[in-house]
Amino acid sequence: MAEVVVEQLVKRFGEVTAADHVTFTVRSGELLSLLGPSGCGKTTTLMCIAGLERPDEGRILAAGVVLTDAAQRVYLPPERRELGMVFQSYALWPHMTVANNVAYGLRTRRAPEAQIRERVDDVLRLVQLDGMGARYPYQMSGGQQQRVALARALVYQPRILLLDEPLSNLDAKLREQARVWLRELQRRLGITTVYVTHDQAEALSLSDRIAVMSRGRLVQLGTPREIYEQPADSFVADFIGQASFLPGHVAATGGGRVRVRLRSGQDLSLESSAPWEAGRPVLVAIRPERVLLADGRTDNVLSGAVRAHLYLGARHQYVIDIGDLELRIEIADELPEGQVRLYVPPQALTLLPHAG
After folding, report:
1. What mean pLDDT comes out for the span 245-263?
2. Element (H, E) at 83
3. What is the mean pLDDT of the segment spanning 215-238?
4. C-alpha 342: how far from its chain's center?
5. What's the pTM?
6. Mean pLDDT of 157-186
7. What span, in angstroms and rounded, lies between the C-alpha atoms of 355 and 102?
């Protein structure tokens, strides 16, 4: 079982705590993404797993082997951790051919040359670069260089694969193609993978689970669907995709339902098993693509005025003024100017605490 366990990881840089008691487990064969904005601690956490940073507190285990235990002063050097690492910059040797770049890790391990040639050929075929071993990095596209870096990480058959924003240097179209290819490869190999990214779409499309980080802390861990549809707080809801946050208070509860009176005076209802108290200030989070035209409906309908419109091709993006509140929606239909009536399905609503 190539499971990765991170327990109460703390890493400080002077007075800054980059990783603040981070705890999670990456299941064997799973791709888990560390997601968050710059400075949230995701890369620091990855570097501690790789052994390129020494944590101040906590333990890290991989496949049952203790890699780091700060309390016991155990620290396994990076080269003995049997981990494959792909850096954001790819870090390819410019004076070496593709084949020699890929073979580098095997040569440092003093593998026999016949084995090296066989493994390099196999892994270049795996990443769809067979026949390109004689080229140099400067003769290859960014997408091909990314695959060379991945091949170098895979060639010595590591137990764990660590990826630090490997697609961020690719253009948008190529990045989308690379996501599909990388996910298919990871599933085919069944290799346990920790993937660092700040790109929400990338994390949602690639991951088995996502660990959302903010200010050094892990704020939510769950499947992409759980993270998107059941965010733990307003930070997660706002960072993962887009959302409008409409303030109000709990007007009534009962029968597993909550009715919220928005600050604009309009009501929205949703199902909730949480013990919300009447009068409590809340935020209603609404994803823009979940809003529909009212079309004769009367419940969960918001009335407002179109303020702004962007044409996105297959969709239209609107900003709707709901009293003094702002609702952003994406809809296939082109709305008329002026007043509109919109239906928000109860299952599309997420209720979050609010300081008021």
Report:
1. 93
2. strand 83-86
3. 94
4. 31
5. 0.88
6. 87
7. 54
